[in-house]
Amino acid sequence: ECPIHTFAYLDLLGDGVHNFIDGVIIAASFIASVPLGATTTLAVIAHEIPQEIGDFGILTYGGFSKVKALLYNFLTAIIAILGATLMYFFKPFFPSLTYLLAFAAGGFIYIATTDIIPELHKETEASKSAAQFFLLLLGITLMWVLKE
């Protein structure tokens, strides 16, 4: 029986803060407009799936059993509901959602430029690079179509 390593607890803390911010961003997006909220929710879901799988791996590697890792991962995920609820009720205290939405957009741009694009550059097979380029263009087109 291995003791639980400190980095597993740090991962839970970081994931809780991350999910709280996700909830705030989703609520702020829906307050701004329903289409923006729906688009933001889809973007958050798309990045949460691999992120939560990675967190599960970190927790099990850090000494948690699979059941405890799933449970604690779920508990940190529902913190997003707390973030969304607080954003909804404390919206009158925010002078403008513009800064919050800009912060969220910057976060997604940061993730893309520091995590995703460098991984794409590791691919050397021409057909896979062409598929990645096509999907990137498809994403840009989707953003253009969904703009308000």
Overall average pLDDT? 86
Name the shape in a single word.
flat
The level of helicity is over 70%
> Sheet bearing the most strands, described?
none
How big a fraction of the residues is strand? under 5%
Low-confidence stretches: none
State the assembly state of the protein chains: single chain
The structural class is mainly alpha
What is the first-to-last residue Cα distance?
55 Å
User: How many helical elements?
Assistant: 6
Strand and helix order: HHHHHH
Radius of gyration over all CA atoms, rounded: 18 Å
Number of strands: 0
Brief synopsis:
The chain is mostly helical. Helices cover 83% and strands 0% of the residues.
Kindly describe this structure.
By secondary structure, this protein is an all-alpha fold. 83% of the residues lie in helices and 0% in strands. It has 6 helices and no strands. It has helices at residues 6-32, 34-61, 66-77, 79-90, 98-120, 126-146. Helix 1 packs parallel to helix 3 (66-77) and helix 2 (34-61) packs antiparallel against helix 3 (66-77). The radius of gyration is 18 Å and the shape is flat. The model has no long low-confidence stretch (mean pLDDT 86).
Task: Note the main attributes of this structure.
mainly alpha, 83% helix, single chain, 0% strand, 148 residues, 6 helices, flat
Give the SSE layout:
Layout lengths: L5 H27 L1 H28 L4 H12 L1 H12 L7 H23 L5 H21 L2
